[in-house]
Amino acid sequence: MLWIALVALATIATVFMLVPLRAVAATASDRIDGSISILADQLREVEADAERGLITDDEARAAQVEIKRRLLALHRRGAPAHAAPSGQKGHRVVWIAALLVPLAAGALYTQLGSPEIPSVAFADRQDERDEQTRITELTQQLTERLKSDPVGGPTEGWMLLAQTYMRMGRYADAASAVAKVVDRPDATSATLSQYAEALVAADEGIVTPKARDAIRTALKMDPSNPAATFYEAIALNQAGDGAEAHDLLVSRLNAAGRPEPWMDIFIAQANRIGESIGREALSLADFAPMAAGAAPGPSESDVAAAAEMSEADRAAFIRSMVERLADRLATAPEDLDGWMRLGNAYRVLGETDSARDAYTRAEALAATLPPDDPRPQSIRQALSELDAKG
User: Fold this and answer.
1) CATH fold of 134-222
2) Are 222 and 189 in contact (CB under 8 A)?
3) How many H-runs (helices) and E-runs (strands) does the chain carry?
4) CATH architecture of 241-390
């Protein structure tokens, strides 16, 4: 139905363009024919006047020559010539464009478009619209409850509101929500780094002085905070210190010593900076061989260490890193190691169902691996542990 509608619309548009041109051409042709008829009548009248002696022979010849000259000029205008007049050329260009543009557009769409994706009727999006409405209503209720709280509202409530605003793309509102609690005694390094993240997002990636102050405070409270380190590197790079920014990211990656959910984005940012300053490209295998496939899947001690790092001072940032990894895998579903990293990240966060789903995807991709590859065994072990937890 979509293709039929598109073809019909293109045909209608072409007709509307070409019909006026035909009318113009027909009008011009009618005018030329009428002028030729008038001149032919005048020529016959001159001959008749000469026969009756009303005009001299010289006058008749002069009049006949002038009329024949006009007839010849009209014939040249009306007959197709080797070099068409400019107006006729313009009409031809419009005709060609009207016919070829829809064909070229259709061919381009078949190459670059997605005709195989089924359309979704407006009525079928009702569930999605209802969910968005519900989220908006809950967000508004939470906002009103926090603002009406006589003691200012709990810190956890403001942080939850900020996270919700971030997911909705309302970055300025998210920054305002975190700003309510950054000066409280219970504010952590993660609180300050999330405040900086919201400020940077609200300013379209620019690290403003206010965001830089929040980053420095977060690093002072916890130098190992990966979020604060990441945005400090962005600030350095924007200030023209690309080499220092690159070194800071690499140093934090080296200090990790084990696979972490935030490593992918660190490496991507380091490579973007490194490309502009002539540094060699980095890979995850340079810092976390286990995550690159040599021995995938953390041990119990690794999980315990990661769990310690996902306490309140890092939870918000780790959550955002996990969501970005999940978004990347949605566009690259064949990345076996990526699904394993995502499963491990969800285990660290204690989200058993999500971890099981990620490892199940990894298990399906690992089915064709050779027998000596250790990854299938690691995946089965992880799934077994998740099943034991229920």
Assistant:
1) 1.25.40
2) yes
3) 17, 0
4) Alpha Horseshoe (1.25)
